[in-house]
Amino acid sequence: MDERRHTARLLVSCPDRHGIIAAVSGFLSDADANVLSSDQHSTDPEGGTFFMRMEFRLEGLPERRDELERAFSERVAEPLEMRWHFAYGDQRKRTAILASREEHCLLDLLWRWRRGELETDVVAVISNHPDHAQDVAGFGVPYHHVPTPAEERMLELLAGNVDVVVLARYMQILSRDFLERVAVPVINIHHSFLPAFIGAHPYRRARERGVKIIGATAHYVTEELDSGPIIEQDVGRVSHRQNVEELERIGRDIERVVLARAVAWHLQDRVLVHESRTVVF
Amino acid sequence: MDERRHTARLLVSCPDRHGIIAAVSGFLSDADANVLSSDQHSTDPEGGTFFMRMEFRLEGLPERRDELERAFSERVAEPLEMRWHFAYGDQRKRTAILASREEHCLLDLLWRWRRGELETDVVAVISNHPDHAQDVAGFGVPYHHVPTPAEERMLELLAGNVDVVVLARYMQILSRDFLERVAVPVINIHHSFLPAFIGAHPYRRARERGVKIIGATAHYVTEELDSGPIIEQDVGRVSHRQNVEELERIGRDIERVVLARAVAWHLQDRVLVHESRTVVF
Amino acid sequence: MDERRHTARLLVSCPDRHGIIAAVSGFLSDADANVLSSDQHSTDPEGGTFFMRMEFRLEGLPERRDELERAFSERVAEPLEMRWHFAYGDQRKRTAILASREEHCLLDLLWRWRRGELETDVVAVISNHPDHAQDVAGFGVPYHHVPTPAEERMLELLAGNVDVVVLARYMQILSRDFLERVAVPVINIHHSFLPAFIGAHPYRRARERGVKIIGATAHYVTEELDSGPIIEQDVGRVSHRQNVEELERIGRDIERVVLARAVAWHLQDRVLVHESRTVVF
Amino acid sequence: MDERRHTARLLVSCPDRHGIIAAVSGFLSDADANVLSSDQHSTDPEGGTFFMRMEFRLEGLPERRDELERAFSERVAEPLEMRWHFAYGDQRKRTAILASREEHCLLDLLWRWRRGELETDVVAVISNHPDHAQDVAGFGVPYHHVPTPAEERMLELLAGNVDVVVLARYMQILSRDFLERVAVPVINIHHSFLPAFIGAHPYRRARERGVKIIGATAHYVTEELDSGPIIEQDVGRVSHRQNVEELERIGRDIERVVLARAVAWHLQDRVLVHESRTVVF
Question: Cα–chain-centroid distance for residue B116?
Answer without folding.
Answer: 17
